[in-house]
């Protein structure tokens, strides 16, 4: 009987059972972890604050993001799982509510107070786990710390300067998009942008970049704002070779052309040509006329 059962058992049966067991364990872990994070996010907010945040969200944001934050195709993405930090960044920098649908939301003065932003952030956080609003200790930096600034400069040049320019002056992307300048962005919003990856920016979560590395990048950017002048001369906006090349071609090269024309107009050959032209057109002797 035992030998008959052994013959009937498929050779891949053990692998199938193992695969199903691992899938079940993973699904259970993900569900419990999400529920725990969601519960902890909601526990910090009172029911009154959640109700206020829901009311604000549904009046200002639901036309694009749906009444339950599920998103509206062609208008706005789902906000389930984006976290409170994303709301604080987008609404706190005035990017949301957006004035119109376009390739990129632009920064403008915020519409809501910080208390209202916090309420909306708590409501969105209650819909699904996501990055929380960072504490001040996470983004407060010393921009005079040479070690921190040096490490932040290396990290920024490696990961961010391709889009934001080497000193955070911003730059153009494709299809009407752009990397915004960072010269006036607060430390808090820079940290939140790294946590949430708004629009075209990749996400630099703690698993990708440590909290200290994020602080070092902020220290580098803050330090670059305090640099007096440009050691190489005029910085031309610090936006790189585009402005420098434009300056060379339109101004310097233009001046060289004007100077070359002036030299050509004052040579002996040019003077003789003018004399010959005068004599041919007037029939007078230029020497006697003088």
Gyration radius (Cα, Å) is 32 Å
Indicate the percent of residues in helices. Answer: 55-70%
Overall mean pLDDT score?
Answer: 82
How many domains is the backbone divided into?
A: 3
Biggest sheet: strands, sense, closure?
Answer: 2 strands, antiparallel
Q: Beta-strand level of the residues, as a percent range?
A: under 5%
What letter string, H or E per element, gives the SSE order? Answer: HHHHHHHHHEEHHHHH
Note poorly predicted spans: 32-42
Based on the coordinates given, report the CATH architecture of the largest domain. Answer: Orthogonal Bundle
CATH class of the largest domain: Mainly Alpha
- Beta-strand segment tally: 2
Instruction: Specify the number of helices.
Output: 14
Structural class designation:
mainly alpha
CATH superfamily of the largest domain: Cytochrome c-like domain
Describe the 3D structure.
Strands 1-2 form a two-stranded antiparallel sheet. The radius of gyration is 32 Å and the shape is elongated. It folds into three domains: about 40-125, Cytochrome Bc1 Complex, Chain D, domain 2 (Orthogonal Bundle); about 135-235, Cytochrome Bc1 Complex, Chain D, domain 2; about 245-290, no CATH class. Helix content is about 60%, strand content about 0%. Helix 10 (about 185-195) crosses helix 11 (about 210-225). It has helices at about 1-10, 15-45, 45-60, 60-65, 85-90, 115-125, 135-140, 145-160, 160-165, 185-195, 210-225, 240-265, 270-280, 285-290, and strands at about 170, 180. With about 290 residues, it is an all-alpha fold. Mean pLDDT is about 80; it is low at about 30-40. It has 14 helices and two strands.
